[in-house]
Design goal:
CATH architecture: 3-Layer(aba) Sandwich
CATH class: Alpha Beta
Bound molecules: nicotinamide-adenine-dinucleotide
Structural class: alpha/beta
Largest sheet: 7 strands, parallel
Strand order of the largest sheet: 3-2-1-4-5-6-7
Order of helices and strands: EHEHEHEHEHEHHHE
Shape: globular
Length: 269
């Protein structure tokens, strides 16, 4: 449970970030700052947070901009008179930005964009949030969104995989540098049903066949749900995880636990 805590969640306008913001509120947090580049979707999530019983503030922030990141942290900490939990959730993938996403053809500006959102922004947000988190008396901690692609490579994601590997290391060095006051952990989703994964699957020639191929390395034959990732993130953010820091946790239907493939019929649940 997250009783009384004040949290900031980035990329919370949709998908996993929205599910985390709402679950944090459901689990008894006092307040959730909902940040996203898209102010309209951030405001929608903030209403869901209110409905779930926490105070909210919606913040429009482009995480590629250092000054906007600093302002986002200041706004959240001022609104709630402090900050206890930071969730660095926002992330982008190069297939959304280019038709040439392989390592030998990726445009340099696309590499920079993915790097800035996926790795530089979590670091800068951590840097600006650290003084507020150090002052917290309510089990302060950071939860980062990594990915199974930070543990293993996959096609058409050179910047994505590299930056997610970086998030895992950022998690560990944050845990070291901010210990013992502030814990830091990350979650590594496999394929989760969100706008990001839908767009990734829909760009295939045969999206249904590609969807099946995506889940075939899993032991559980379906896409993951954003709410399932949110439960893990909330556990890591809670005082129940008080002895856990520098940890890397997969939520991937078993995909990274073996080297096989399975055929799952489309009716699997
Ligand atoms: N969906 C999956 O299968 C999956 C798998 C592994 C890891 N992840 C990671 O989980 C996190 C959430 O993924 P998702 O599937 O919910 O993504 P999504 O694309 O559905 O949502 C991401 C949110 O981040 C926001 N965002 C993007 N760029 C931004 C910027 N520059 N500034 C501020 N906000 C910005 C978007 O507006 C959006 O609301 C990401 O870090 C992603 O890499 C997702």
């Amino acid at each position: 449970m997250l009783n009384g805590k004040a949290a900031l969640v980035t990329g919370a306008g949709q998908g996993i970030g929205r599910a985390i913001a709402v679950e944090i509120a459901r689990q008894g947090a006092a307040a959730v700052a909902v940040a996203d580049r898209n102010g309209d979707t951030a405001a929608e999530t903030a209403r869901l947070v209110d409905d779930a019983g926490a105070s909210s503030v919606a913040i429009t922030c482009d995480l590629r901009d250092r000054d906007q990141i600093e302002a986002m942290v200041t706004t959240a900490a001022s609104a709630f008179d402090g900050l206890d939990v930071l969730v660095n959730n926002a992330g982008i993938i190069e297939t959304a930005l280019t038709d040439t996403p392989t390592v030998d053809e990726l445009p340099e500006d696309v590499w920079d964009a993915v790097y800035e959102v996926n790795l530089r922004a979590p670091w800068l947000t951590t840097k600006f949030a650290a003084p507020h988190l150090r002052r917290s008396q309510r089990g302060p901690n950071i939860v980062n969104a990594a990915s199974v692609s930070g543990l293993t490579g996959f096609p058409h994601g050179p910047a994505y995989c590299t930056t997610k590997g970086g998030v895992i290391q950022l998690t560990r060095v944050t845990a070291v540098d901010l210990a013992p006051a502030v814990r830091c952990n990350c979650f590594c989703p496999g394929v989760i049903e969100t706008p990001l994964s839908r767009a990734f699957i829909d760009r295939a020639e045969d999206p249904e066949a590609f969807r099946q191929a995506m889940i075939s390395p899993q032991l559980i034959g379906r896409l993951g749900r954003a709410g399932e990732v949110a439960k893990l993130a909330c556990f890591l953010a809670s005082d129940d995880a008080g002895f856990i820091t520098g940890g890397v946790f997969v939520v991937d239907g078993g995909a990274t636990s073996w080297m096989g493939v399975r055929s799952h019929d489309s009716n699997s649940v």
